[in-house]
Amino acid sequence: MSVAAVIVDVPTMQTNRPFEYEIPEALNDVVVPGVRVEVGFGRGKRKIQGFVMEVKDSSDFSGKLKPIIRVIDVKPVLSKEMIDLSYWLADRTYSFQISCLQTMLPNVMRAKYKQFIEAAPGFEDDSQVQALLQNHLFVELTNDTTDEKIKEIAQLKRQNKINIEYVVENQANSLTRQAITTDLNVNEISEKKSQLRSNAKAQLKLYDFLIVHHDELPIESSEIEKKFNITRPTLKTAEKNNILKFIEITKRRTPVGIHPEQTNAPVLTDEQSQAVSTINDSIDNHQDKTFLIEGVTGSGKTEVYLQTISRAIAQDETALMLVPEISLTPQMVNRVIGRFGNQVAVLHSGLSSGERYDEWTRIEDGVAKVVVGARSAVFAPLKNIGVIIIDEEHEGSYKQDDNPRYHARDVATWRAKFHKCPLVLGSATPSLESRARAEKGVYQMINMTKRINDHPLPHVQIVDMRNSENSAVKGDFSPLLQDNLWRVLKRKEQAIVLLNRRGYSSFIMCRECGFVLKCPNCDVSLTYHKNLGRMKCHYCGHEEPVPHVCPNCKSKKIGFYGTGTENIEKQLNEQFPDARVLRMDVDTTRKKGAHAAIIEKFGNHEADILLGTQMIAKGLDFPDVTLVGVVNADTTLSISDYRASERTFQLLTQVSGRAGRADKEGHVIIQTYNPDHYAIKDAAKQDYETFFKQEMYLRHQSGYTPYYFTTLISVSHQDEGQALKQSYWLKKQLQSVLSDNSVLLGPSPTMISRKQNKYFYQIIVKYKQEPNLHQKLLEILSDTQAETKKGFTIAIDNEPQHID
Ligand SMILES: Nc1ncnc2c1ncn2[C@@H]1O[C@H](COP(=O)(O)OP(=O)(O)OP(=O)(O)O)[C@@H](O)[C@H]1O
Ligand SMILES: [Zn+2]
Ligand SMILES: [Zn+2]
User: Fold this and answer.
1) Which ligand sits closest to the CA of 517?
2) SS3 content of the chain, % helix, strand, coil (to 5)
3) Which residues span the membrane (predicted)?
4) How far away, in angstroms, is 507 Cα from ligand 3 center?
5) Would residue 249 count as lying in a domain?
6) Is 100 annotated as a binding residue?
7) Cis, bond preceding 218 (omega within 30 deg of 0)
8) What is the arithmetic mean of pLDDT over 495-508?
């Protein structure tokens, strides 16, 4: 008897292990690791889904095993690699195994969907396939499909004679579209055309269209109408005259809006070719090394990525490239597609679940060899990976905020080891963790110190907003920034204006002296808690009243700080009435494709000034941008997080790097109330190394990453007293295993301590080496998730990206 070990879809601690089921004889070859099955669970008749993790010959269990009720997939949806990875992931992130398995699959497989079987191209006339489909284009796989039939389907799938389409139920009808085609060849159409009357303009146009596009038929009717301006009646007339016919076609849903031109590899600069050859050596020798490319803005890192991807493809391997957020980096996606065309699959949150599924299948079937995508693309079902790349590796968005709280960099490291391939991390402003690892030799450093064609780095000026000349102006632009905007407009060049929104309005600053209220214990800024009307520290829980005079200079100009993008847009319109301004923030980018549209417009010179939040800071490459203005550099500096300086440095360096990337010189103006802060001064010099040394020193002093590991544990309950009580219980539990070298902070209420009617408290553990901590946390998780303690949720976050 064969036995399947199944992880069932019940996310609780008690079910967080494989359960054994008997595999019915008829399903012997079909139930393999990686397929999903339906099984009975518990007493009663409850049926649930589960993943087969392992198939064994016998069971250690002495009782009678329940049989598998039904197999959901006729082909594994997860590979052996993914199953292995899920064990590691669950352990690393303190998550349920089932959550990890599900995270690896496209959404559509979690929603309510239907499965259709169709003939694979070229197998339409195969006798077995015909027997299965019985003259239908599709057959649906349902609950009633017999085990025998499933076995047959699984076999055909293994032979690649059929394809399986997952269709979300309400999208099922989008699977077929109407198209036109013709039985005539080009000569016959020309012949018919010569018989037309010369005033049959529309028909003449249509015949010409059919001749020119003959190779591309069938073409969707809607496309013909939209793109070529040929109307439906025109098509109908031609149908009556037997020139063309309408048919139904199945349509692969390709992501819209991406039609880049084909590009060829340029001649590399010395630094680029050095980098490429170092990495390619590792690809050739199948080494799982991690490289950190520290390359100044505009040094041509992208080209390095592209050429290493080329190498992997040339060796018949695949490549995985992660970018922070696809919608923000349309230029990057275009460059990859421009080089590798159809071999590229793009995975991002903007895709409909059907589109996402299509891309996923193209990868799974081996048609797509290069995957570009945001965080979750790190689970792309690529086989035989030759290189993995993480661009802008310092970005916080690589860490998932919800369970499983994984960092794409860690998953990528795991996969690189599995595939024995190099992992390339790139940034102009590496995260401190990564740069520190390079220091220790864990990562191999690759430096790119020059911009392409020796273009100089931009000239940066810091404007001290405390200065009377600047504080006297009515709006938010200093005289220097105003003058420079005028100059850019006169020269018909372009400017980028950044309004730093992060942390905006939650902290208090003195407009006279730049003073920011900080925690006496933790050296992070205090945050305003609206419901309490008090200032609070997120780390240790210290609180104090909101000050009305500046403790530093006694000025009354202390208060909440911040202006909105809309307000700045208004000021720009008033002061520069002839300038065309594009605004990019959460409000203007709600619609799908809005980011790309704004960026394209700016690239086409349909605007002079691009005003925006953090969104505009990274990756953009426009040759005519000669000025970058930062309205308020201080807001990130004041977020109550030990990464505040790092984030500020990164943001300012990245946004400055948008200026002067081509032949025209770049100029940057940074307005700040903290002109002497090292993060701002170093960013102005685009000097990562100096910043790194200073910041490392401070992290060492205060005991933070990368000198210490950090684990954040949050507890929530509907009753505040219960939440607090539980946090103290948790603290005691942790104290019992921690050595004196570790630090325990909290419990303290989180920023919005009451979300969805629950109270949240958090505890932070900072440690260097705690061999018993991991096990203890697993125990705590198991205890708190037990039935008796219902109502509590506890979340454990390894190396949190931000603490709020
Ligand atoms: N070898 C080359 N020859 C000519 N132009 C190049 C070469 N390599 C890159 N470029 C061009 O130089 C510009 C900057 O390159 P790229 O955008 O790759 O820089 P980057 O290092 O990724 O910068 P950032 O970190 O600021 O995004 C691009 O317009 C790119 O097309
Ligand atoms: Zn504190
Ligand atoms: Zn002051």
Assistant:
1) 3
2) 35, 25, 40
3) none
4) 14
5) no
6) no
7) yes
8) 75
Is 553 marked within a binding site?
yes
**Residue 777 domain-assigned (yes or no):** yes
Q: Do 468 and 343 reside in the same domain of the chain?
A: no
Residue 330 sits in the same domain as residue 431: yes
Kindly tell me if the per-residue pLDDT of 152 is higher than 80: yes
Nearest CA to ligand 1 atom 25: 297
pTM as predicted: 0.81
**Total residue length of the chain:** 804
| Residue 756 and residue 627 in one domain | no
Q: Which domain holds residue 216?
A: 183-243
Ligand 1 centroid distance, CA of 614 (Å) = 21
Give per-residue pLDDT as tens, 605-630: 999 999 998 888 877 889 999 999 99
Residue 394 Cβ < 6 Å to ligand 1: no
C-alpha of residue 299 to centroid of ligand 1, in Å: 6
CA 272 to centroid of ligand 1, rounded, Å:
10
Ligand 1 near 653 CB (within 6 A)? no
- 452 CB within 6 A, ligand 1: yes
Dihedral sign, CA of 786, 789, 793, 797? negative
Clarify whether residues 464 and 600 are in a common domain. yes
767 three-class SS: strand
The answer to whether residues 236 and 351 belong to one domain is: no
> Does ligand 1 have an atom closer than 6 angstroms to the CB of 386?
no
The answer to whether the annotation marks 519 as part of a ligand binding site is: yes
Domain count, the chain: 7
Ligand number with the minimum distance to the CA of 269: 1
CATH number at residue 791: 3.30.70.600
Q: Are 508 and 547 in contact (CB under 8 A)?
A: yes
Let me know whether 498 and 568 are in one domain: yes
**What's the pLDDT tens digit per position in 59-68?**
877 778 899 9
Distance (angstroms) between ligand 1 centre and the Cα of 302 equals: 6
Residue type, 472: A
Q: Report the complex ipTM.
A: 0.94
Contact criterion met (CB below 8 Å) for 300 and 391: no
